[in-house]
Specification:
The structure holds two protein chains of two kinds. Chain A has helices at 2-7, 123-126, 214-222, 225-231, 240-243, 254-264, 267-279, 284-287, 289-294, 310-319, 322-332, 341-369, 374-401, 416-432, 434-448, 462-474, 484-512, 556-562, 604-612, and strands at residues 21-27, 33-38, 44-50, 56-61, 68-74, 82-88, 92-99, 102-108, 114-115, 118-122, 130-137, 139-140, 145-150, 155-160, 166-170, 181-186, 195-199, 209-212, 532-534, 567-569, 574-576. The longest helix of chain A is centred in the middle third of the chain and has 29 residues, at 341-369. By secondary structure, chain A is α+β, with helices and mostly antiparallel strands. In chain A, α6 (254-264) crosses α7. Chain A contains 19 helices and 21 strands. The model of chain A is unreliable at 1-19, 290-320, 327-344, 358-385, 387-399, 413-417 and 433-618 (pLDDT under 50). A five-stranded mixed sheet of chain A has the order 4-1-7-8-9, with no helix packed on it. In chain A, strands 3-2-5-6-10 form a five-stranded antiparallel sheet. Chain B is mainly alpha-helical. Chain B has one domain: Recoverin, domain 1. Chain B has helices at residues 2-14, 26-29, 37-51, 61-64, 66-72, 82-87, 89-97, 108-114, and strands spanning 34-36, 58-59, 80-81, 104-106. The longest helix of chain B is centred in the middle third of the chain and has 15 residues, at 37-51. The two termini of chain B are 26 Å apart.
Chain lengths: 618, 117
């Protein structure tokens, strides 16, 4: 009860800074709505469903810099019916109502004045909507045709299947009713018959991705998805489209089944047999026991998890480095009266040393931080955040503090003491926290799958980031697999996680990137000014399929992604990256693309990951 | 007696702005559920909707109390728009989370963050 009393005394007197902005959507439509926010470049910042009972939902962001485009649709009829498109700035809001069957919108500014910047267009006409999917039949399908059809065979779009099993069906129209739709794939090399998948009712064509494989085909043909999951020994919440597309062979013998279908030249026959077995109460391992045994596992060896914490120890050694202590002492013990131009120069020099060292420590922290819960992570990241910001500010302000001769400009002061206090505090925290020390070692070792030596993290390991993501996601206690429900829930996790992700990239760049490399456009001293932080091509790749539409566009980001890099765009507050990540099983941390090539398809996971690439504003 | 006083103080503190968490808020349920900053935004938006009785997108003093208005009225027009209200969200969250800095609010912390006394 005491806590209630004290909590009640908290005062709120501050308001957001001028650079912050909020856009809000009022749902007076009487129906659920779906809205999106895109930046001036058209990149998706946020998509959200807002239920009719939630009148207000808001999104904070750095909106005053530029107008964003808000699209609001009635969720139940969002593609063909007109949606609201409004260019709005931060601190404006959109009120949605419904007139007849059509959504109506008004934009109001902070003074309540209504503007007239609303257009009404159908999503299909206003945006180049495509149904993205990924077809697999044991392995990714190369070739064939994908069609979006209804049960009567009416075709709503078609497209060839690409080399990685990826297809993108352009949509000119969609049925106005809610009839079931399916994607069919035929013309698969050496496999007569069709693979098919039903399009979920809540499928979001602008971000979701449809997996088409044996499991989805079984579900469509049998009409009993739950039974298929039982037959395939999947959890009830797992998504069939994803479950088999990236399932290890040891868990589901899809390659063996595909081989059988090819051999018998009858996919339909194999499917029919499986359905019969399913209805007889068998599971797939019984149906294909012999085949499964014969199928050679394609997985790499399990990642060893070392018991020792070399990295943690090494990190502590790093902060115990005498040079660090010396620099700290030399810089920190200057009295106010000694803060002459000379001492400032010395402080600056020492701060550079300290900053360099600390960045290394922080990078290790951030790297390790992928593997800890938000609760554990947050205090550390807050500290990192503050430290980095202060260093950036300090370094950027330095020319304004001292003149060309090193003299302090009139009226200017350096807050170096606070910086040094922070450094000392952080150092003490790292040193004293044995738990922290442990998780660094354990996390880094698990991330890289290696016993690391000498405290040097091999950032160049391409698999590392994939493992980082997989470990982080799969270590969430409520999820043991990447499935649809996971992604529905993941959004809120990602809103916070993405900040750490981007920050980690920033730290990587700061700490590890070679400033002399031509592609690295950041200097440690002025990172707050840098527009792009780019990782070398051999640095870890992360998930993103957003560049699908940018291929051939020749943009800087497109080029970078094509090259397999990831980029932090400070101006857009966006982290751009390439390959889809994550695995489907807790115990296996396999790259999604076993070939190692850059997979440019959007998968359902990458669709969700897309939101993870956007930084929330500070 | 001591308990009664605490209850009285608490009641005064909580009702200073006549604010109560929204019905679907973990705070009201008295559960140990935690919410992060993003979820807190939603809770605050629901909180706004609850007190915006005329649904005009503004809280007036008679709806939210003078203290709430003073704390958030950037435009000094005597009322708080939804965007003004939501702009206080980060500060509300941080003010309550500043001690533990665990990035989440729980139970009474949520209640405290929703208040604007």
């Amino acid at each position: 009860m005491k806590s209630i009393f004290f909590a009640g005394l908290v005062l709120f007197t501050q308001v957001a800074s001028a650079s912050d902005g909020v856009v809000c959507i009022a749902n007076d439509a009487g129906n659920d709505v779906r809205w999106t926010i895109r930046d001036s470049q058209g990149e998706l910042l946020r998509t959200r469903d807002q239920r009719s009972e939630n009148r207000w939902r808001c999104q904070r962001g750095d909106f005053p810099k530029a107008a964003v485009t808000v699209r609001v649709s009635l969720k139940k009829d969002q593609y063909s019916a007109p949606s609201c498109y409004a260019q709005i700035f931060g601190n404006e809001w959109v009120v949605t109502t419904q007139k007849g069957s059509q959504i109506q919108c008004e934009v109001r500014n902070e003074s309540g004045v209504q503007t007239s910047r609303v257009e009404y267009k159908s999503i299909l006409k206003a945006e180049r909507i495509r149904l993205f999917g990924e077809a697999s039949f044991g392995q990714a399908i190369n070739g064939g045709n994908a069609r979006l059809v209804d049960r009567d065979g009416t075709v709503f779009g078609s497209a060839p299947v690409g080399s990685d099993g990826v297809f993108a069906i352009p949509l000119q129209s969609l049925p106005e009713d809610e009839r079931p739709l399916f994607v069919e794939i035929d013309g698969i090399k050496e496999v007569p018959g069709k693979l098919t998948a039903s399009v979920p009712q809540d499928f979001d064509y602008s971000i979701d991705n449809l997996g088409v494989n044996l499991a989805t085909t079984l579900a469509v043909k049998s009409g009993d998805e739950d039974a298929v999951k039982q037959y395939l020994e999947l959890k009830s919440f797992q998504d069939l489209g994803i479950a088999l597309t990236h399932a290890p062979q040891t868990l589901f013998p899809s390659e063996a089944i595909a081989a059988k279908a090819r051999k018998e030249r009858s996919l339909d026959g194999v499917i029919d047999n499986m359905i019969r077995d399913m209805r007889d109460g068998q599971v797939v391992s019984q149906s294909f026991a012999a085949v499964a045994t014969a199928a050679a596992p394609r997985l790499k060896a399990a990642v060893p998890v070392p018991s020792e914490h070399e990295i943690g120890d090494a990190l502590v050694k790093l902060v115990d480095n005498p040079a660090f202590t010396a620099a700290l002492t030399a810089a920190g013990w200057k009295s106010e009266s000694q803060r002459t131009a000379e001492s400032l120069e010395e402080i600056k020099r020492q701060l550079t040393v300290i900053t360099s060292m600390l960045h290394q420590v922080l990078a290790e922290q951030a790297y390790a931080a992928y593997n800890v819960s938000m609760g554990e992570l947050n205090p550390i990241m807050v500290r990192i955040d503050q430290s980095l910001d202060r260093y950036g500010i300090l370094m950027n302000r330095w020319p304004n503090i001292v003149d060309a001769n090193g003299n302090v400009r009139p009226g200017k002061q350096s807050d170096h003491k606070n910086q040094l206090n922070d450094i000392a505090d952080l150092r003490k925290r790292i040193k004293d926290d044995t738990g922290f020390r442990s998780f660094i070692g354990d996390s880094l070792s698990r991330m890289t799958g290696k016993n690391l030596e000498g405290g040097t993290t091999q950032i160049g390991d391409n698999d590392a980031m994939q493992r980082i993501y997989a470990i982080y996601l799969l270590n969430q206690p409520e999820y043991r697999a990447i499935d649809k429900r996971f992604y529905q829930e993941l959004d809120r996790h990602l809103l916070r996680f993405k900040a750490y992700q981007a920050k980690t990239v920033l730290l990587f760049a700061l700490a590890y990137a070679d400033p002399k490399a031509s592609m690295v456009e950041v200097q440690r001293a002025d990172y707050t000014k840098a527009s792009f932080l780019m990782m070398n091509v051999y640095y870890p790749k992360t998930a993103e399929g957003e560049f699908f539409s940018m291929l051939g566009g020749g943009s800087m980001l497109g080029e970078a992604v094509r090259a397999g890099r990831f980029i932090y765009d400070r101006d857009g507050a966006t982290l751009w990256s390439s390959v889809p990540l994550v695995t489907t099983r807790r115990t296996r941390f396999e790259p999604v693309s076993t070939s190692g090539s850059v997979r440019l398809a959007r998968t359902r996971r990458s669709a969700s990951m897309r939101s993870a690439t956007l930084l929330p504003v500070a | 007696m001591k308990n009664s006083l605490l209850i009285l103080f608490s009641a005064v503190a909580i009702t200073a702005c006549a604010h109560k968490p929204a019905a679907n808020n973990p705070a009201e349920a008295g559960s140990r559920a935690t919410i992060d900053e993003v979820q807190f935004d939603d809770a605050l938006a629901d909180h706004f909707a609850k007190f915006d009785r005329d649904d005009d997108g503004y809280l007036a003093a008679d709806e939210a109390g003078k203290k709430c208005i003073q704390g958030a009225d950037r435009s000094r027009d005597g009322k708080v728009s939804i965007v003004e209200f939501m702009a206080t969200s980060p500060q509300r969250f941080k003010a309550v989370d500043s001690k533990k800095r665990d990035g989440v609010l729980q139970g009474t912390e949520i209640q405290a963050a929703l208040q604007c006394n």
